[in-house]
Fold each of these.
Amino acid sequence: MFLDMFLKVAGAASIAALLFVVYLARQVLSKPQGTERMAFLSTQIQKGAAAFLKREYTWVSGFVLVIMLFFVVLGMVKPDLALNWKTAVSFLAGSVASACAGVVGMWIATRANARTAAAAEHSGVKGALDIAISGGAVMGMAVVGISLLGLVIIYKIFDGNPTIVNGYAMGASLVALFGRSGGGIFTKGADMGADLVGKVEAGIPEDDPRNPAVIADNVGDNVGDVAGLGADLLESYVEAIIAPLAVASIMFAANPGTTEFVRSFPFFVAAIGIFASIIGVMYVKLFAKNNPQSALMNGTYISAVLAIIGVFAYTWLRGEGFTLEGVAYGKFGPAIACVVGIIAGMVVGFVSEYFTSGSYRPVQKLAEGCQTGPAIAVTNGTAVGMQSTALPVLVLAIAVMVAAHYAGVYGVAIAALGMLATTGMVVAVDAYGPIADNAGGIAEMAHMDPKVRHITDNLDAVGNTTAAIGKGFAIGSAAFAAIGLLSAFMLSAKVTEVSIADPHILAGLLIGAMMPFFFSSLLFGAVGRCADTMIQEVRRQFREIPGLREGLEGVHPDSTTCVSIATQGAIKGMLLPGGLAIVFPLIIGLSPLGSAGLAGMLVGAIATGVMLGIQTANSGGAMDNAKKYIEEGNFGGKGSEAHKAAVVGDTVGDPLKDTVGPSINILIKLMCVIALVLAPLFAG
Amino acid sequence: MFLDMFLKVAGAASIAALLFVVYLARQVLSKPQGTERMAFLSTQIQKGAAAFLKREYTWVSGFVLVIMLFFVVLGMVKPDLALNWKTAVSFLAGSVASACAGVVGMWIATRANARTAAAAEHSGVKGALDIAISGGAVMGMAVVGISLLGLVIIYKIFDGNPTIVNGYAMGASLVALFGRSGGGIFTKGADMGADLVGKVEAGIPEDDPRNPAVIADNVGDNVGDVAGLGADLLESYVEAIIAPLAVASIMFAANPGTTEFVRSFPFFVAAIGIFASIIGVMYVKLFAKNNPQSALMNGTYISAVLAIIGVFAYTWLRGEGFTLEGVAYGKFGPAIACVVGIIAGMVVGFVSEYFTSGSYRPVQKLAEGCQTGPAIAVTNGTAVGMQSTALPVLVLAIAVMVAAHYAGVYGVAIAALGMLATTGMVVAVDAYGPIADNAGGIAEMAHMDPKVRHITDNLDAVGNTTAAIGKGFAIGSAAFAAIGLLSAFMLSAKVTEVSIADPHILAGLLIGAMMPFFFSSLLFGAVGRCADTMIQEVRRQFREIPGLREGLEGVHPDSTTCVSIATQGAIKGMLLPGGLAIVFPLIIGLSPLGSAGLAGMLVGAIATGVMLGIQTANSGGAMDNAKKYIEEGNFGGKGSEAHKAAVVGDTVGDPLKDTVGPSINILIKLMCVIALVLAPLFAG
C-alpha cells in the first residue's frame, strides 16, 4: 500500500503538470498574433511542422508495429521468457507518450512564435519573455506530465513487473531516436541550404522572406530544438525512473526483506520534481524583470533547491536503509545520490556554457583565430570541443563513485534521476530558445520595427546560453541514464561476474565504441544529401521564379516544396541509422559474444558516445558563438575575413551540435534500454 | 637452454638486420648528390633535422632521468616491490634504443633525398626508387635490429624478469610519445605556416625556394614521418614482444610445467620476421620495374608470406600445447593467433587505403562535394573518417575473439606480434615516402628539369598510398599491442576478477575515454600556436628582406629561424600532453580507484583512442587526396572553387592525420605499458 500511495502521488503530480499545461496554453493562445502577415507566416510554420511530424510518426509507427509484433511472436514461441504482448503494450504506451508530448509541444511552440513577436512590439522584453517561457513550459510540463502519467498507469496495470515496464522506456527511446535524428537532419539540411544559397550566393540577409528555404529553416528549429529535445529529455526522464525501479525490483526478488522505500523513492523524486518545476516556471513568469538571463537561471536554481529540500525531507520522514549485493547502505544514501546527480548536472551545464559562450576566453580566442582563415577556425573549434570533455567527465566519474559509495548500483541509477528531477523546468528553459528565435524570424520576414528584432535577438542570445547548458545537461543525464540502464541490464542478465579481461567483452567493447562514430557518419551523410537537394531547389527557384530575387511585390517563394524536401531528406536519412541502433544490440546479444559481449558493447558505446556527444555539442556551440562574437564587431565584424572564416566554422559546427551530438545521446540510451528489455532473451 | 638458444637466434637476427643497415647505408651514400645547390639544400635539411632531434632528445633525457630516479628511489623506499635501479637501467636501454634508431633513420633519410632526386635525373624511376627504398629500409631495419638486440641483452642480463624487462618497453614508449607529438607539431606547424602564407597569401607555388618555411617543412617531413613513425612502430614492436613474454612468465610462475615453447615463441617470431623483411626489401631493390606501387606491395606480401611459413614450420617442428588460466590450448594455437594478426593488419591497411585513395568512391565523392564549399568539404571529410572506423574495428574484434579462442590471452598478445612481425619491411615502405617527397622538394627548389619532379611526384603518390596503409597498420597494431599490454597488466595486478559493473571501473573508464580527446585538444592547440608564430615570421621576412618575394638572384630567406621556431613550438607543445600521459596512470592507480579503476581507464582510452586514431588518420588522408584528385583536373582542377574548398579541407586534415592521430596511438600504448610496469606498486 505504501508503494500504491506513491503511485497515487506521482499520478497526482503528473495530472497537476497537465493542468498547468492547459493553463499556460490558454494563456499563450489568448494573446494577439499581430498582423495578418505575421499570422500567415506563423501558419506556414505550423503547417510545415505538422506535415513533418505526421510523416515522421507514420514511419515510426511502422517500426513500432514491427517491434510489437516481435514481442507478440516471441511470447508465443518462447513463453518462458515472459516477453510477450504485455511488453508490446507497454512499449506502445511509451512511444505514444513521447509522440503526444512532441505534438503538444510543437503545437504550442509554433503558435507562441508570432505572439512573442507581437508582444515584443507592444509590451517589450517582459511581455515577450512571458509568452516565450510559457510556450516552453507547455513543452516541458507536457513532457514530464504525459510520460509520468503513462508510466504510473503501466506500472499499476502490470504490477511493476520490470520485464513489462521496461518496454515503456524502450518505446519512448525509439520515438526519441527518430525524433532527434530525423529532426536534426531536417533542421540542418534546411538551415545549411538556406544559408549557403541565401546568405553566400544570393547575398540576402538571414531570414529574408525571398529565400524559399527560410520557412523550412524555421520549421526546423521547432522540429529539432523543441520536439527533438523534448523527446530526448522525455526518454532520459523515463529511463532515469525505470532504471532504479529495475534495480530495486531485482533487489526485492533477491531479498524480499528489502523495504518498499527504494521502490517508492523514484516515484517520489519524480513527483517532487514536477512541483518544483511548476514553481520555477511561475517564478520566471511573475518575477522576471528586464534581465531574462537571470530570471531563467534563478528559476532553474529555485526548482533544483526545492527538489533537494523535498527529497531530504521525505527521506528524513520515511527513509530506511537497505541491502544490495550483500552491502548495507544507510537511509540517506539515495537522497545523497540524488543530490550528487543534481549537482553534477549543473556542473556539466556550466562547463558547457564556459566553453560555448562569447563571454569567456575559449570562444573569444576561437574568434581571434578566425582571422587566420577557415581551416584554423575549424581546427580550433574542434579543439575547444575536445578540451571541454575533461571537466564534465571528471565530474561524472566522481559522481558515479560517490553515488555508488552511498547507495551502490541503485545510487548510480538514482543520481541520474536526481539530475533529471527538474526536467520540466529544464525543457521549459530550453524550448523557450527556439520560440524566441522563430519570433525573430517572423519579425524579419514581416518587416516589423527593428526594435522588435532587437528584443527577440536579445531573448534568442539568452536562449543560446540556456540551450548550451541544456545540451550539456542532456548529455550528462544521458550518460548517467545509460549507466543506470547498463547496471540494471547487467544485474538482470547476470553478467556482473564477467571480467573486463574477457575477450568477449573486449570484442564487444571495440564494436560498441565504434557505433557512435559510424552512426555519426551516417547522419552527416544524410544532412549533406538533404542540404544538397535543398540548395538545388533554392537555386532553381531564384532562377525560374521571375522577380523573386528582386523582391517584387506579390512574388512569393515556394516554401512548401522546401519543407517537403527537408521532410523527405529527414525521413530517408533516419531509417538506416535508426534501424542499425535497434538491430545491433539484438545481433550482438544473440551472437557468440552473448550477454557479456553486449555488456562490453554498451560500455564501449557509452565511452565514445559521451565524449563525442560533449565534443560535438560544444564544438558546434563554440563555433556558432564565435561567429556571433565577431558579428558584434570584434576582429573586423561582419563581412571581414575573420567573419567569413567563422561562417565556415559555424556551418561545420551546425550538424555537429544539432544533428550528430543529440542523436548520439539517444543512440547510447536506446541501445542500453533494448539490452535491458531483451535481457531474458539473451540469458535464455 | 632451449630459451637461451632462441635468445641467440634473435640476437643473430638483429645483428643481421644491423649489417643489412650498414650495407644499404653505404650503397645510398655512394650515390652522387647532384648539383652544388642540391647538396646545399640537403645539408640545410640535415642541419635542421639534427638541430631538432638534439633539442628534443635533450628534453626527453630530462624526463628519462626523472623517471629513472623515481625507480631508484622506489627501490630504496619499497624494496619488496622489486621495482628498483634494474628497472631504471632497462628503461634507459629502451629509450636509448629508440633514440638511436631515430638518429640513424633521420641521418640516412636526410641524405637519401638529394641522391634520389639526382638518380631520378640520371637513371629514371628505377634508380630513384632504389635509393628511396634503401633509405627507408635503413630506418626499418635499424628499428627492428637495434630494438631487438637491446631487448635480447636486457632479457639475458636480467634473466627475463618481467618487472625489469617491461621497463625496456616503457623507455621505448616514452621516446616515441615525444617523437610523435613533438615531430607532429613540428611538421604541421611548419607545413601550415608555409602553405598559408606561401601558397595562399604570396601566391607562390609549394616548395618554392623563396618561402622561408619550406626548409622547415621539409625537415618536418623527416622529423614526423621518418623519426616519428619509426619510433611509433619500434614501440609497438617492442611491446608486442614484451606482452606475450609477460603473459608467458605469469603462466610459468603459476604453472611451472608450462613449456618453454611459449617463452621462446615471441623471440622466434621476431627473428623470422627480420629475415622475411630483408628478403622483402631485396625483392624491391632487385625486381622493381617501372611500377613502384606493385614492387612495394609485392615486397610486403612476400615478407608476410615468408613470416607465416616460418612460424608454421617452427611450430610444426617444436610447438607444444600449454595451459593458461585452467584452459588447455593446442600447439598450433600461437601460430594461428600470429596469422590472424598478420591478416588483420593487412585488412585494416586495405580499408585505410580504400577510404583515403583517389582511386575509390569515398575520396572521389569527397572531391565532388568540395564544389559546395569548404564547410561541406570538412564535414564530409570528417564523415568519411568516421565511416572508416567500422570495418577495421569489426576485423579487430573478430581477430581478438579468434586469437583468444586458440591461445587465450597469450594468443591476443601474439596476434599483435604477428601483425608486427614484418615491421622492418613496413617501416621501410613507409619511410620511403618522405624521402621521395623531400626529393621532390629539392628538385623544385633547385630548379631541376620538370621530368625529375614528375618522377618524384609519381614516387611520392605511391608513398602516400603506402603511408595510408602504414598508418592503418600502425593503428591496428597499436590497438592490438595495447590490448596485449592491458591483458598482461590485468594478469599481473590480479584484476581479472573485477566485474565490468564495478563503479571504480566505470569511473576509470569514463576518465580513460576522455584522455584521447583532451590530449588531442592540447596537440591541436600546440600546432595552432606553432603555425601562428611561423606565419608571423614568414610574413615578416617577405616584408623586411628586400627582393625576397620577387626572387632576386642571391637573395635567400632565413630558413634557420623558421626551423628554430618549429623546434621551439614542438618542444613547448609536447611537454604538457606528454607529462599528462605519464602522470595520469600513476595518479589513477594510486587514487581510490586503484588497479581496477586503472584497468577501466586503459579500456576507456583504448576504446576512444582506437576510434579517434582511425578517424583522424583517414579523415586527414581522404581530404589530402581529395585535394590531389581535384588537382589532377577533376571538378575544375587547380584554382577552382572546389580546389579552394579542398585546400581548406586538407589544412584541417593535416594536423588530424600527422599530429593527433599518430600521437593517440602512442598515448594508449604508453599508458598501458606504464600500468604494466607499475602494477606491483598499485597492487602493494
Note: Chain A is about 85% helix and 0% strand.
Amino acid sequence: MIYFDNAATTYPKPESVYQAVNRCMRDYCANPGRSGHKLSMEAGRRVLETRELLAELFGAKKSENIIFTLNATDALNTAIKGVVKEGDHIITTSMEHNSVLRPLKQLENLGVETTIIKCNMLGELNLIDLQTSIKENTRVIITTHASNVTGVLMPIKEIGEIAKQNKLLYIIDSAQTAGTYKIDVSDINVDILTFTGHKGLMGPQGVGGFYVKEGVNLRQLREGGTGSMSESLMQPEMLPDKYESGTPNTPGIAGLAAGIKFIKEIGIDKIRGHEEEITSYFLKQVSEIDDIIIYGPNDIKKQAPVVSLNIKNRASSEVSFLLDNQYDIATRPGLHCAPLAHQTIGSGQQGAVRFSFGYFNTWDEIDKAIIALKSIAKEECF
Amino acid sequence: MIYFDNAATTYPKPESVYQAVNRCMRDYCANPGRSGHKLSMEAGRRVLETRELLAELFGAKKSENIIFTLNATDALNTAIKGVVKEGDHIITTSMEHNSVLRPLKQLENLGVETTIIKCNMLGELNLIDLQTSIKENTRVIITTHASNVTGVLMPIKEIGEIAKQNKLLYIIDSAQTAGTYKIDVSDINVDILTFTGHKGLMGPQGVGGFYVKEGVNLRQLREGGTGSMSESLMQPEMLPDKYESGTPNTPGIAGLAAGIKFIKEIGIDKIRGHEEEITSYFLKQVSEIDDIIIYGPNDIKKQAPVVSLNIKNRASSEVSFLLDNQYDIATRPGLHCAPLAHQTIGSGQQGAVRFSFGYFNTWDEIDKAIIALKSIAKEECF
C-alpha cells in the first residue's frame, strides 16, 4: 500500500513511537497525577515530558500552557466555545475544516455572530477582506494555518498583527502544519494554537491539544477529577488542570513524545524539505497530464504538502477507488470535511481526490502515483 | 511492585491488549471512516467491532447507541450537559466522583438546580430519600454504580424503576463496575450508561464512552468533522456520528476490543468471583488488625473490590507512602476526587488509603499487604 492520506493521519509512524506506546502500557501505565506511588509518578513524569517537548517546539515559556485533549476537534471546541459569549462576533475563512465551521454554526444558535470570509479560487485569504470584516463586537479571529484541502498556507503572522491592532483574540488551527512547519508563539501574535498529535507530530491517534497564552482565560468544556484540589467541588483554575479532566491518554501522550523527539532528531526543516520536494515534483509532473485539474496554489512555497485534483468531471470517489483498487494507492476523495473550501475552489459538487504526503513517502511512490494518474486519465469514464 | 490502584486504572492489562494496540498502530492505523481506501476501511471495521462488543456486553440492541469519548469524564459531561436546561432539577448522591459533582456545580451557575442526597456512613443510599427529593422540575437522576471510595454498590435497578415511574432520565456512571459486574440495559431502566475503557474493561487509557437509549436525544458537547454528511455545516443527527467529532483514538479502541474479548473468554463471573474472594479475605484479615478503621459496607456482596481504610488518625498520604516506599505496594491516599463521599463516611479531613483490587492480583499479594499493614499499624506515628 502506498499511503498518501497523511493529512488525515500520518502513517506509518517512527518505530520509536510504537515502542514508546508499548513500553508505556507494559511498564508504567498507572494513572498519572492521581496517586503518589512509583508507577503513577512515572506516568505523570512522562505526561509532563511531552508537555515540555510541545512547549519547546511551539516556543511557549511554560509547559502548563500546553493542554491535552482527545483530538484537534476537541481542542477547537474548547477554544471557540471557551472565549465567546452571546452577542460576540467571530471572523473566520471559507477554507476552514468542519471542526471550526460546525462549532461556529452551533454558536450562531446561541446568539454569536459569525463572518466567513470567502477566499479566492486558490484558497488565499485577502487581508483587506479580513480588516473590513472587523466590527465593534468582533472578539475572535480563527483561521487554519494550512488548508486540509489545497494545503494553502494562511498568512498567520499578518493575521496575528491585525488581531493585535484590533485587540482581538487569534486562534490558529495547526492540524496540517504542527511538526512540519515552525510555529513560534513568541514570534506570532496567537492566543490559542490548537494542534493534533497524529499528523505532522507523528504521534498516535487519540491525542490533540492546544497552547493557550498566559492570561487568556477560557471557560472549560468539561469539569471533573483532576487529581488536584480534590476537596473542591469547583473546577480548579490552575493550568493545565482546568482544561484536563479525567484520565488522560497516557500511552498516546508517551507516543507523542517519541514523535516529537523524532522530529527534533531529523530536524523540522529536513522533514519539510523532503515533503516540499516530493510534492513539488508531483505537482510538476501531474500538471502535464491532460485532463487533470489541480486546485490550490500549485506552488510548494504557498502550500503544505497536500494536493487536491480531479480528472475532468469524473467522480472523485471513482478515481480514488481506482487508485486504491488497481494501484494500491491510498488517497481521500470527496469533501474532506471542508465543504466551503471545496465551494471556494470550485469543487463543491465533485469533491476532489486528495494526495497528502508525509516524511516517509518516497520518490518511487510519487512516480507510481504519476503513472497511475496518467493511466486513469487515459481511460474512458465508466 | 504490587499494584492495588485498579480503581484508578487497571494494571497490568491482558497481553492481548498490548498486542492489539501495537498491531493497530503498525498495520492499519489510518483514519477510520474518513476515506474509502483499504487501511481506512480496516480501521473503521475495528472501531465498529469494539462498538459491537460493547453493545453485546451491555445488552444494547444497536451498536450505534455506543459512543466513544476521551474518558468517562468526557462521557459524563456530554450526558449531564446534554440533557438539562435552565430551571431543570437533577438529583444525585453524596458518593459521586467529581466527574459528576463538578459538572453539576458548574450547571448551578447556569440556573440548574441540584440535590445531592447524603448517603449513610457506609455510603448507602436510602431510596426513600431519593423519592422525596423528586420535584416538579426534576428531570434527571444520576448515580454511580459503585463508589470509587468504598466500593459501595448503588441499587441501580430500583433507582431505575423510580426514575421510570416519575418519567425521569436515569444516568449511571459505571466507571468502577463495567467489565466486572453484569450491566444489562435491557433489564435496567437506564437512559445513559457512561463507562471507561481502562478500568474493568481492561483496555488502554484514552477511551471512555456511553450507551444512550434509543430516542434519548442529547445536545452534543462538540461539533466537527465526522466523515459523514461533509457537505453540511450542521452536526449530523445520526448516531454515533452526532457525538463523535474528530479522529477517534483508534489504537485505544482496538485495545479495548481485546480487553472485552479477554473478559468474554475468562467470563465476567469468574473475574468478579476472584476479585470478590481476595477482597473478602483482605477485609476479614484487615478487620482484625488493631487501630485500622475500614470504611464502607465491609461486605463484598455490597461493594465492588475497593477498600478504603485508615490507621487511627495517621495521615493517609503517610501510610500510602510507607506502603509504596518500604513494601513496594501501590495504593492511593487522599480524597480520590470524591470529597463528599469522604465527608459522608467520616474521612473528609483525613482522606483514606484506598486498596483497589483487580483480576491479576494474587493471594500472595494480598497476604503481603496484610503483613505490611500490620507492621505499619504497630509503628509509632512520626
Note: Chain B touches chain A through 88 residues (CB under 8 Å).
Amino acid sequence: MNADAKIVQKIQMNVSQELILALDAMGGANAPQVVVEGAHLALERYPRLKFLFFGDEKQLIPLLKEYKKLNAASTVHHTDTVVDDDMKPAAALRVGRTSSMALAIKAVAEGVASGVISGGNTGAYMALSKILLKTVKGISRPAIASYLPTERGGETVMLDLGANVACDELNLVEFAIMGSVFATDVLGYENPSVGLLNIGEEDLKGSPVLRRAADYLKNYPGINFYGFIEGNDIAKGTVDVVVTDGFTGNVALKTLEGTARLIRSFLKEGFSGSLIGKIGYFFALPTLRLVFQRMNPSRYNGAIFLGLNGIAIKSHGSTDALGFSNAISVAVDMLSHGFKAQIEKNMEDVKVFLAQAELEVKTQG
Amino acid sequence: MNADAKIVQKIQMNVSQELILALDAMGGANAPQVVVEGAHLALERYPRLKFLFFGDEKQLIPLLKEYKKLNAASTVHHTDTVVDDDMKPAAALRVGRTSSMALAIKAVAEGVASGVISGGNTGAYMALSKILLKTVKGISRPAIASYLPTERGGETVMLDLGANVACDELNLVEFAIMGSVFATDVLGYENPSVGLLNIGEEDLKGSPVLRRAADYLKNYPGINFYGFIEGNDIAKGTVDVVVTDGFTGNVALKTLEGTARLIRSFLKEGFSGSLIGKIGYFFALPTLRLVFQRMNPSRYNGAIFLGLNGIAIKSHGSTDALGFSNAISVAVDMLSHGFKAQIEKNMEDVKVFLAQAELEVKTQG
C-alpha cells in the first residue's frame, strides 16, 4: 500500500471529521496560483477539507472562483503583508506579525484551524511558528523532518533538515525521539530503527557530540537505535529514521535532489541524442514515466515542523500544484494521529532516563 | 574531448617518460585480484607504466603470471603485514610501518615511484601519507578531493571528502586554493569558480567559520570566489570547485552515490516489473547502458590526497578492476603536471594576503 492509499484509508476511518487547514496563500515562488490549485487537488482527494486562505484577496477571490467546490469550501482572510523570501527571521518576528504567514499560523494557535501549510521563507516560518505555536513540553528545539524514498521500498524519515545548524547531543536525542514517534504514529512503522548520520573514517567516526548522542541513544530503552549510518544509507533505507544536525541534513537532502535531477537530465540527453535513443525512449516511456514519478520531488513535498504545539507543514518554495497538494496531504496525515501527546509522553520518559544517566556518571566520577 | 582522451593526449606528449607507480596490492575488499586486474587495464591504456606491487608474493606472483605484459612491467615487493580496514590511524602508525600500504607510500617518499595508489583504510592511508610524504609547504592539513559529473557537462572538484571532520576558516581557504590549482592544472579549467557549501536558510546562512572563510575568499585575488552554494549545486555544476569540511563532504558524496544507486534500482524494478517494461528495456538498453556508464562510480574512482609532497590516490575499497584502473589514471593525470609547485606558490601568496588582512583588522581595531 503506498503512502497515498494509507492516508486515504486513515481519512476514511475519520470520515465524519471536518478538517480545517490554514494556508499561507502568498508563500512560495508561484503563489497564490499554486496554493489555490494545490488546495483544489487536495480537496478532490479529501472532500471534507475546509481551507482558510490568508493573503491578497484581490488575487485570491478571482482564482478561487475558477474552482466551484474549492470556493465553497474556502474563506479568504485578507492581508497586504507578505514575508519576503530573503527576510531574516528576526525581521519577520518584528514586522511580519500581520503577514499571510503569521496569520495562517495564528489560526492554528487559536484553534480555528487544525494545521497550517506555507511555501514561504523557511527561517521566518519556523521562527513565527515557535513564537505563535510554542514548542511541545520537553522539546528544546523543533526540527524539520521529511520522508524520502528508499531502495528497500517504503520511506525513511530524516531530520533535522535545516532548522538547527549546530546541535548538541541532547538536541540529537530529541530529534531521535520525535522521528521515532513520527515513524510509528504517522507512517505506521513498528519499533522503527533510528540511525545517526556520520562518516565512515575510523579515526573521525563521530565528533564528540555524535559519540555522546550515540551513547545516550544506545542506552535509552525507548529507542530502537541502530547506530551510526553513512550518507549512502539514506537512500538505501538502512534505517527508518535518519537523525542529523540541520546543516548536514539540509546539505544531504539537497544533494539527493540535485543527483536525481542530474540523472534525469543524463537520461533525457541519452534518449534524445541519437536515433536509437529516440526509438528506445518511445518504448521505454511508460516505465520511465513511472520511475520519474516515483522520484518526483513533488511526491515528497511537505516537510514537517516537528516539536510544535500544532501542525505546521513547509511546502517547497518552487513546488507545483501537485506538490502543494501533497504538502496538504502530509498535514491531513498528521492530523489523524495523536502525535503531540505521544511526543510529550516520550519526552517525560527520556528526562527521567537522562537524569538517571547523569546521576550514574556522577556516581562513577 | 573526454577526461580519458585528455589524459592520453598528455601522456603522449610525455611519451619518452617512464612512469613508475607503487601499488598497495593488499588494500580494499577484493585485493589483490582487483589491484592486479586494474593495473592490467591501466597498462593497456598507458603502455609505458611500470608497477611496484607491495604485498603477499604468494598471492601476487601467480596472479601476475596471468598477464604477460603486466608481469614484465611489474616487480613484487613482499610483505606479510596488512593494514586492516578497521585499524585506527594511530595504530597504523605504530604497527603498520612495514605494511603493504606504508611500503608503497615509502616508495614515493624515497623517489623510487612517482605515485601511490591504495584501496585500503582511508584514515590509516592519510595518516601514513602525512608522516611519510609530509605536507606541502604552507598547507596545514591535506584534504581528500575527487571529481564528480555535473548537469552542465564537465566535472566539478569537491573537497574535503573526509580527511578533516572539523575545519576552521583557514583550512577551508587552503582547500579552496588547492582545489582551484587542481582544477586549473589537472582539469585544465581557466580561472575556475570556487563555491563554499552551505545551507539556504537565511538566519542560518553560514556558521561563523563559513562566514569568515567567505570573507577571506571574497577578498583574496588569487581565487575566483563564487560565494555560497547549496547541496543541489554540486550535481548542477554551479561551480568548478566545491569546498566544504570533511564531515559534510563525506556525507554529501555518499548521499550522491546512494541516490544514484536508488534510481538505478528504481529503473531496474520498473523495466523488469511488467511486459511493457521488458519490451521498453529491450529498446532502451543501449541508452540506459550509456547513462549508467556515465553515472558508474568506477568511472569516478580515485580520490586525491591533496596537499602532500607526492601523489597519493585513494581507490574505493569495494571498487572493481575498471575502478582501480581509473584510480591509476588519476595518478597518471596528476603526474603530467607541476601541481605541487603551483600549490606552494599559491600558499606563499595567500600567506602574504592573510598577514595583510590581519594587519588591517588590527589597524581598524
Note: The longest helix of chain A spans residues 246-272.
Amino acid sequence: MDPGNPQYHTRNITKVVGGYTKTCTDLAVALYSQAVDKVFPVASTRVAETVKLLENTFRSVNIGLVNEMAIICNKLGIDVWEVIDAAATKPFGFMPFYPGPGIGGHCIPLDPHYLSWRVRLEGYEARFIELAGQINRSMPEYVLNKVTDALNDKGKAVKGAKILVLGVAYKNDINDVRESPALDFIKLLQNKGAKVSYHDPYIKDLSHEGLSMKSVTLTDSTLKSSDAVVLITNHKIFDYKRIAGKAKLVIDSRNATKKLGKRKNVVKL
Amino acid sequence: MDPGNPQYHTRNITKVVGGYTKTCTDLAVALYSQAVDKVFPVASTRVAETVKLLENTFRSVNIGLVNEMAIICNKLGIDVWEVIDAAATKPFGFMPFYPGPGIGGHCIPLDPHYLSWRVRLEGYEARFIELAGQINRSMPEYVLNKVTDALNDKGKAVKGAKILVLGVAYKNDINDVRESPALDFIKLLQNKGAKVSYHDPYIKDLSHEGLSMKSVTLTDSTLKSSDAVVLITNHKIFDYKRIAGKAKLVIDSRNATKKLGKRKNVVKL
C-alpha cells in the first residue's frame, strides 16, 4: 500500500500471497483475485512475509543511503539535491531517493527490524537494516543542528526562539502521524528550550507521549514573527512562495522550495 | 556507460557535465552535444563527480543489500530468488537487484571508495560505502563455503576436488575481467587445494597476480568429470540445460538455471 498515491491503489498493486498449505494458497488467490488485478502466489507464508520485508528494507536502506549522502555533501559544500537530480537522468539502473528529516509510517521504520530480530536468533546481524535504522533515526537531530546553526549565524540561540514547524504528517498529502519524524523533532526542539508551534492542514491536533498541541493558522504574522520556519512535511497544498517570502528564516528539509531557486533566507538539508 | 547493454549506449545516455568555470561548462556542453542526445550541465566539476559517485554507490549498496538478503534467506531456509521476483511485481518504488559472487568492473568496486576516502579527511566515515564493500568483497568466500558444503554432503573435501569455473568475466556477455570476483574465487579454491579449471567463451586466457590459466573446452567429459561446476558469470551463450544435465554438481551463484526449475544436483546462492 502507498497511502496518498494517485496512480497505484489496492486494485492495481500486485498482491503477493503465500499459504500455509497449497490449499490455503489457492483459497487466498481465489479471494484476492476478486479485488485485485494480479495475484502472485509464492511458496509459503514465510516467503510472502520476506517479500514485504525485502521491499521495506530496500526503501529504508535507500533512504538511509541518501541521508548519508546529504550529510557527506554538506561536509563537502555540494548541493545534494542537484546531485540527485543529475543522477536521475540515467535512464536505467538508478532510482532516485531523497533525503529528509527521517522516516515514518507504519511499515518502513518498523518492519525491517522484525527481520533483524529474527536473524539475530540465528546468530547473524542484519547490518544494512541496523545501519539504515541508525542513520534514519538520527535525521531529526541532524535537522535540529541545521536549525541551531542557522539561528547561530544570526547570533540567536535555540532557547527561547519561536519556531514554527510546517507539516507533521510522516509524508506529504496524508493525515497520518504514525512514527512521524516531526514528533521526535518537536521534542528535541522543546528539550532545547524553543517555543514550538506547528501548522499542518491535515493534522489539527497532535497528541503523542506527553506532546499535546493544536495546529496554528498560517497567517502572515505567524510566519513573520517566527525566528525560524522548519519545513518537515512537503504537503503540495503549501504556498512555498508565500512562506519563503514572509518568513525570516526557512529550514527546508525536503527541498520543497526547489522551484523558488536559491534564496538567502532558505537553508536546505 | 554500461558495457554490453543493447538498449543504452553512448548516444542515448544523458551526459552530466560540470566545468571549472561557466565557460568550461559551456564548452563541454557544446562538445558533448555533438555526440550525445542529452547533456545535463551541473554547477561544478565537483558536483559532476559526485553524481557519478552517487550512482556507483547506489549500485554497490543495493548489490550489498541483496547479497546480505541472500545470506539471511539462506539461514532461514527461504529462496531469495523467489523473494526478489515477487517483490519485483511492485509497480513503483522498488528496483530489483540480484545476489552473486561479488562485484567487478572498473567502477562499482572502486569509485565509491574515492568518496569514502575523501570524506574521511573531513572526519566522517561513509558507513554505507564501507558496509557494502565489506559484504560484496566477502561473496567469493561465501560461494566457496557453498561449494565446500555441497561437496561435504557427498563426503568430499575441496582439497583434490576437480572444480570447473564457468564464466570469469565480471558480468555476463562481456570479455572484461577487471576486478572480477572470479579471480578471487579461483585463488580461494586453489588455496584450499582444489584442482581448478575454467571455461569462458569470451576470455581465452587468464593472467592475474600469479594466476595463469587457459579456458578449457566445455566437452561432455569435462562436465562429467568435474566434482563441481561453479557458475560465476551467467553468459547468455551457455547451454544451462546441457550443463545441469551432464554435471554431477552445479553451484549456481547467479540463478542462471532458473528456467530449469529445481534440480537435485543444482545448489543456488
Note: Residues 139-268 of chain A form a domain with the Rossmann fold fold (CATH 3.40.50.720).
